[in-house]
Amino acid sequence: MIYQRQKQQGFTLVEVVLALSLTTLLLALLSTGVYVVADDWNRNSDVLDASLDQSLAVLQIDRALQGAFPHSYTDQESLARLIYFQGFDDYISWVSAVSPQRDAGLTVWELFSVQDEGVYLKLVPAYSDDPRQRLEEAEPRLFLPGYEVSFSYLYQELDESKVWREDWDGAEFLSLPLAIYVNFTPFDVTADDSEALEVLVRVRNNQHRSIRPNVGLFGGALN
């Protein structure tokens, strides 16, 4: 019986080296593609997180302004009862029934911006006194970085026409404004992830139950 020796088949060294080279190249291309996708995902996620943070911050201010309350206190010099609310074109401080910590009771909010830093916020409890001293002692926290803020206040004239003011003193008017407009403007308007943010809030509880506003303020409904 004659046995024929079968020819053994396999890869040559050149073929093995070539296969390994191609595999290395494919893995390098694949890893580069994965890195690009992951980097793009992280960049988009950062933009989304920043957008969500801005939206939540604006929503907090919107809710706090909706809960604005005509908080009264007794002036130590005149012994008159006054309404606490201080508003300028770049600063606002008011008492709200809304607290971000969900604490019981009224909370004093103070909002202002610092150039090249952002919008700062102070929070202190509202007692039966003038809260300005507690606000001065409170530590501000950066609330909305990269933005500056401006305010306007809706006022009703004697003829019941409504105009926007750049300031509002609750102690003078003995009432809160009919509405408050807040504009958050980014320092860098050319940035892709920066856009102006606006809040327009009607103050429903703008009059105190027993303290009547000065002549010229009626607190009628908004048109």
Report the structural category. alpha+beta
Uncertain ranges: 40-49, 218-223
Coarse morphology: elongated
Spatial separation of the terminal alpha carbons:
112 Å
Largest sheet: number of strands, sense, barrel closure = 6 strands, antiparallel
Looking at how many chains there are and whether they match, the oligomeric state comes to: single chain
- How big a fraction of the residues is strand? 25-35%
Helix content: 25-40%
Average pLDDT score: 82
Blueprint of the fold:
Layout: H1 13-66, E1 72-74, E2 81-83, E3 85-87, E4 91-96, E5 107-114, E6 118-125, H2 132-137, E7 141-145, E8 147-156, E9 162-165, E10 168-169, H3 170-173, E11 179-186, E12 197-202
Antiparallel strand pairs: 1-2, 3-4, 3-10, 4-5, 5-6, 6-7, 8-9, 8-11, 11-12
Q: How is this structure best described in words?
A:
- The structure is a single chain.
- The model is unreliable at 40-49 and 218-223 (pLDDT under 50).
- The chain is of the alpha+beta class and 223 residues long.
- The chain contains three helices and twelve strands.
- It has helices spanning 13-66, 132-137, 170-173, and strands at residues 72-74, 81-83, 85-87, 91-96, 107-114, 118-125, 141-145, 147-156, 162-165, 168-169, 179-186, 197-202.
- The protein has a domain at 48-202.
- A six-stranded antiparallel β-sheet has the order 7-6-5-4-3-10. It has a four-stranded antiparallel β-sheet with strand order 9-8-11-12, with helices on one face.
